[in-house]
Structures are given as C-alpha cells and as structure tokens.
Queue: 2 jobs
Job 1
Amino acid sequence: MRRTVVLSVLVPVAVLALTVLAWHLYVTLGDVETFALPAPGLVISTLWSDWNTLGPALWVTLKLTFSALALAIVGGVTLAVLMAQSRWIELALYPYAVILQVTPIVALAPIIVTRIPDTQTALLVLAFVVAFFPILTNTAQGLKSVDHNLRDLFQLHGAGRLRRLWYLEAPAALPYFLTGLRIAGGIALIAAVVAEFAAGSAGAGSGLAFRLFEAQYRFNTPRVFAALLLLAITGVAIFAATSLISAWALRHWHESAVPRDR
Amino acid sequence: MTGTAVRRPLVRLSGVSKTYANGVLALDGVDLSVATGEFVSLLGPSGCGKSTILRLVAGLSPPSAGRVELGASPEEAAGLRREISFVFQEPTLMPWATVAANVMMPLRLRRVPRRDADERVAEALALVGLDGFARSYPRELSGGMKMRVSIARALVTRPKLLLLDEPFAALDEITRFRLNDDLDRLWRQFGWTVLFVTHSVFESVYLSTRVLVMSPRPGRVVRSIAVPDAERNEAWRMGPEYNALCREVSLALHAAMGDAA
C-alpha cells in the first residue's frame, strides 16, 4: 500500500522533471530562439514578472469557469430529474439538449454575443451550454439505472415520487453524476477559454485566453507559455478536486472508490 | 385440496391469466387459494409464471383476466396490501446504505417514528442472526448474509403475508439448508402466511404445508400436495416421510412437464 502511494507520486514527478530537463537542454544547447520556444526557467520568471497582467486574467477565467460549472450542475441535474419523471418531458427536451451540444461553440458564439449585450454574461452562457451536457446525460442515465426490484419494493411500501427520488434514484445516480462532473469540470475550463477567444472580449476585464492570444500576436512567446502553464495547472487542479470529491462521496460502497483486498 | 377449508383464505386467485406486452402468455387460468398461516410453495419449471403469480398477489402488476383477491372484502384487501413483504431472488440491497439503513427503508417509507424504527431494525437483525453487522455495507457481506439482510428487511414491517421469490436459489447448499431452517423457525414463531416460489423439490417439501405443482408456460396449477406438519430438522430430512413426499412431488412435477414418469 505504502509502496504504491510512493510510486504513484514519484513516477509522474520524475517524468515531469525529465521532460523539463530535456526541454531546458534542447533550448540552451540547440540555441533555439526565445520567440520559437522559451526555456522553462524563462517561462517561470515571466509568470512572476507578468503576474500583474496574468493574475487578474486568471481570476476572470476562474470565475467564468466555476460559475459555468455551478450553473451546469444546477441546470443539468434539474433537467435530468425532470426528464426522469416523465417520458414526455424527456421526448420534448432531449433533442434540444443534443442540438445545443453538437453545435460547435465557436459557431454559436457570435449569435449569443450579439444577443446578449453584457460580454461576461454571454461568455457564461456559452461555457454553460458546453458544460451542462455531460452532467445532464450522465445524471439522467443514473436516475434510470435503478434496480427494477428495488423500484418494486418502494412501490410495495407505498413510496411516492419524492421519496423514491430522494432515497433510491438520487443515491443510485450519484456515481453517474460524479462522472459527469469530472468531465464537465475539464470541459468548463476549455469552454471558458474557447468562449473568451470566440467572443473576442478585450480590455481590462478580460480573461486568460484573451491575454494568451494577445501575447501571441505580439510574439511574446514566454507570456504565451506562462498563460498556458496557468491554464494547465487550473485544469489539473479541477480534475484533482472533482476526482477527490468523487472518491470521498463513494468511499463506502462504489467499486470505483473502494480499495481492493488481495 | 387438503385441510385448508377450515381456515380463512388470505389469498385467492380465480381464473387468472396474464399476457405480457410482448404477447407472451405467462399464466393461463390459474386457480389457487392460500389460507391464513399456510406455507405454500409454488413449484414448477423455469418460465412457468411462478414469479408472475407473486407479482400479481403483491399488486405490482395487474392480471389480464380473472381475479386476485386478498382477504374476505375489499376493505380487508386494502389493509392487507400494506402488510405484504417481498423477498427477491437477489438480495436487492441498496449498496450505498448500511445494513441497518437497508432494513429500515420500509419503515422509513411508511413514516414509522425513528425510535420505533431503530428498535424494530435491531430486533429484525437479531432474528436473522446479524446483530453486530448493522453498520456494515452490503459489499462487505457474503451472499448468505446479504440474503439474511433481505429477509430482515421483509420481516421488519411485521407482515401478515410474505412473498418469497426463489430467495435461496443463488446460495450454496450449506447456506441454503441453514437459511431454510431459519425461515422455518421464523414462520413457526410469527405465524405468517407464506407464498414461496422455488424450483427445488427438496426445498419445497422441507418448508411447506402444501406444494402447488405448476405446468410449463402458460402456467397453471396442476397438483396440490399437502405436507403433514412435523418438526423440521435433519432427522426428518433423512426420514422416510420426507423422502416419500419428495418422490411424490418429483413425480407430479415430471407429469406436469409431460415427461414419462
């Protein structure tokens, strides 16, 4: 047990260190121009020196990502619960959810941005549209996957719709919802970045994506990499957080979260 | 039909047929009655509609034709509906809930006050020999123990009518014998009326006061064989009476299936 924990930390860290070292050697020994590929040390120092620009931009993107994710959870779960109540609601709503999902956000962005005058609201709508679908489909699937005999048992003991939802369907759907959440967490960040880019929002209140593209136009490659680094760290942190939440919530009973004795 | 005329019928099916949505005729003109306090086994080949009969009695599915009656009057039937417990072939536990929470679920759904419910759950777990496992999760238990939890959940409501759908079919023989004895003991202690589905001749004879033999699909009850009351134990299981009955039931089953006996 201890050995696997040490290994599971040590191996990725070692791989990362080797990659950074190789990158560093490639840039310094190969005399690579900074605008083509900055050395890892330069990326870190740029992150530090440009924090006054990058920090607030990160904050804007984080706010957008988490607002979109929160809305996606509320919207996705609500819609999934409604759809589980009646086949008619499902038939009426599901096609629209699918259409929203399959329409590329980049194509959707101009319409939504011109419809909604406030840029941040428009961005939020765009990121929400992308993030809510995995939560909706997974939760809906979970609500439907309740053991039929358990349903019968609840009926036999006179359980109403609400009690069945609370005591049976919701717990059964939890692992599915959490899978949806893990996907949506990553997607919300990507959607926020894509939305910022597609909407072309600029100025003081703009997010990390705008800063990234701005730096690219100015051939400020170290800043591009610094912004990328921030986005990558954010993505990993969201993934780690949602994975931890999932493991914690399912720790007592779900095969995915229970350690296996050998 | 034997010895049931004196006692009040609790369950009566008259001319009951069931056709499923896919057109399969599962039951065709089933007549049967179960008296209060009887332990009746439904024995028949797979797919003969044994489980369907239990679902009809529980009110989980309506008959296509014929009548399913509980008690002597519609008022009594409404009351009795609330005093039915069902045990499935699989333990059918909620994996996210502890043993105690699983057993408590029927009480929670019936809005029994928490303190009462706690007491009755502890009592039910003790009856099936699972005190000390209240806080375990189903995944930590063996197959036999899960089945005991399922039985505890059925008796926690203090039912009058217990419907058991091949509850021990998936268990090994040793566990099965032990649970047979436990079920027999609880039945004698509480005086439930039991309708028990099985495809084991030996199990049906060991547990029942009466064995109903069914034909292959579409199912009908073709024989009713009474089992004399005797204390169930290993001695009886080894004795001539039990063996003669097993032979009789087995022959009836073969006859029902159209085999040369």
Job 2
Amino acid sequence: MDPDLLANWTTQLRKGLLELCVLSALKGRRLYGYDIVKRLGAVGGLVMGEGTVYPILSRFKREGLVETSLEESPEGPARKYYQLTPRGRQMLGKMLTVWAEVRDGIDHVAAELLP
Amino acid sequence: MTGAILMTTFTPEAEARLEEYLRQVRAAVARDPEVSPDEIEADLREHVETEFRSAVRPVTLTEMEAVLVRLGPPENWATAGGRSAKDVVVGDLTALGRWVRTRTRGVLSTLWRGPEDWRLAYLAFGLFCFGLLTLPIVVGVLLLAASYVMGRAAAELAKEKGAPLGARRWLVYPGVLAVSVPLFLAVMLWPVSAGAPASEFVEAHERVARAADLHDRGVRDAYQPSAERVKQARRVMAAIPGPRDWAEPVAGVFAAVGALALWWTLVGVAMWAFPKWPTVVFHPLLDGYDGWHGLKLAAVAGVAFLIWLGFATRFAEAAGLT
C-alpha cells in the first residue's frame, strides 16, 4: 500500500474511533479535558497527538453533544469539566450500535478469510 | 486569552515557545468553522498548566517542548477535527485540476510522441468533439467527416497490427458512428419518401370527392369537378380500406412499405453479390456481416414486395387505375 494512502486511511480510521472514544469516556461521568486526554492517550494507537482531542471536544460542544461547567480546583485555577448532554448520550448509543455492527462484520469477514 | 492567567511560572523561552505553539493552533483550527479557537486555546493552557502542576519552577524550554511534542503538531488538527465544506471543495477541485493536467499532458504526449494508432484515435475523438461543438456552423459537418476518416484509419491500423482496438474504441467509434449510422439509415430508409406522393395523390381525389358531396351549389360550381373526375375520385376513395379520414396516411404507409420492400430486395441482392462493401461502408455496424445476410434480406423483402404487389394490383383494379 502507498505510504500516503496508508497514512490517510489511518488518520481517518483514528478520527472516527477517537470521536467515539471521547463520548464513551464521558459516559456516566464528567471529566476535565486533561483527564480525557490522558485516559484516551493510554489506549495504544488511538491518540497520535494529545492535542487532537481538544478540537473534537470543541466541536462536540458546538453540536450540543457535550456541555461544560467550571469547578474550583484545590490545585490551581477552576477546571472546565465536560459531560454528555442527552443528545450526546443518544449519539453515543447510536455510534456504539454502528460500531458493534462494523466490528461484528469485520470479525465475520476475518473469520472467513484468515486461516 | 494570554499566558498571564497561568499560575505556572515559565522561563521567557518556554513562554515564547508556548505562545508560538498556540498561535499555530489558532491558525490550524481557524479553517474549521465547527470549532472555537478560543475554547481550544483555553483548554490547551489548562492542559499545559496541569502538566506542570508539580514541576520545579520555572519551567524550562526543554520541559515545555516535551509537553508540546506530546500534544502533537497543530497542522494535523484540522484533519482530526473534520474538514470544512470549503476545504473539501477546494481539496476536491485541486485533485480534479491535478487529474486534468496529468491527463492533458498524457494526451498531448501521446498526440506528438505516442504510437500512431493511439495518435489517430485521439485525433479522431478530438475532431468529433470539435465537430459537435461547431455543428451549428457548416464546419462541424466537415470535422465530423474528418473524424470519421481518422477513426476508420485508426481501426484499419489496429487491424493491420492484429491488435484489437481495446480502450481506443471509445475514442474511435463516436466519430465513426456519427457518420455511419446516419449514412446507414439514409441508405436503408430513403424509399419511405415514396409515401408522400401517394398521400398527395389520395388527397387530390379526396378533395374532388368531397367537393362533389357538398350541398352548397355555389361552392360546388366554383370548384367545377367534371363528372368523370368525381367518379374516378369516388372509386379511388372507396378502394382504400378503413375510415375515410385515414385514407391519406394509409396510402402513404402502403406506398412506403412497397417502396421499402422493393428497395431492400435490390439492396439485399447487391449485398449478396458484393459482400465486402457493406462491412467497408458501414463499419463497425455490419462487422459480422456475410453474403448470406444479403440473400436472406433479399428473400424476405422480395416476398414482402410480392405480397404488396398483390394488394397494389387489387387496389388499382378497384380504383379503376389500370
């Protein structure tokens, strides 16, 4: 495979999965940006630059999938916490459904093609 | 937002590097209308501060660089955050322009330096395109004719080399078909025009018959059809089957069928006698033709003509035309 093509494909794959993981990380809890970045950064191969998470959070906020709240921190200035909105929870549910279908489909194909 | 709100103390170099990085971030995400640069900058400042929460003060440039490296190059973020519709359009147009330039260079290179059969194919297609564009003015017809000749030459060359036209047929056939299809239709269907005089013949008799049927004496006298003409006209109209209003089209179709049957009989015989010329003149329409096709056409058309002749004779007798 052409290196540019592979790089582009990998970027697109990671982009979609990272968005799913950002919403998943916020499922049932609220986290501040740094915490989200570090949690997702621990997933191997998912986050190639920690900074890529922040534009996603910004876009999700603009689309009404997440909302923010400021909270005082004993260790410094107030922290901005992210949490899912009802719309974000709905979107996460749909994305997880699609992901399960894709994953099962790929597993099925792999089981047929791979020895 | 500025670095002043940060509680962490940086060396001047580290702070300058951070500001430079944030400037790059703003520039990178500015292309994405779905994100807020202010919000992202605030998040990043919070991120950096949290990273150095327990660091020794002041934070050095090396330490700052390590954090910024982990954050990643901002120029990749626009892709990570999604491209704007404008970026998508611009990107697609750029790719299209690149493709067009590459193809144009390829075509020109083939035209000037490529193998002859490809050169002829491109020339045939180019002439065909220009011919279509200039068809409203007479020059278009000449260009189409030239495209036909070039296309035929390309096909012959490929044949001589024993190689099929392959992909070149998409360049060659448009110009060839633009000429051979109309030519084929004209050669095979021109006798249809025989229907027009037949219709006019019936129309003339119809006019006489109707005038004689008129109760308005003034009009009838003004038209003045002779008794013999009226009688003849009425016999002709009575000999044509079907409603009287349909007499003209029925006569036209009948005459056209007869003319076609006779012509196709002659053409079939000619094609059987000279089996090479149909494939030469009507390439590629009749590439699979052999002499027997001509004979079959002549036989079927001949039988049809004989049947037609029988009906025509009966009509002529009934109409008193014999």
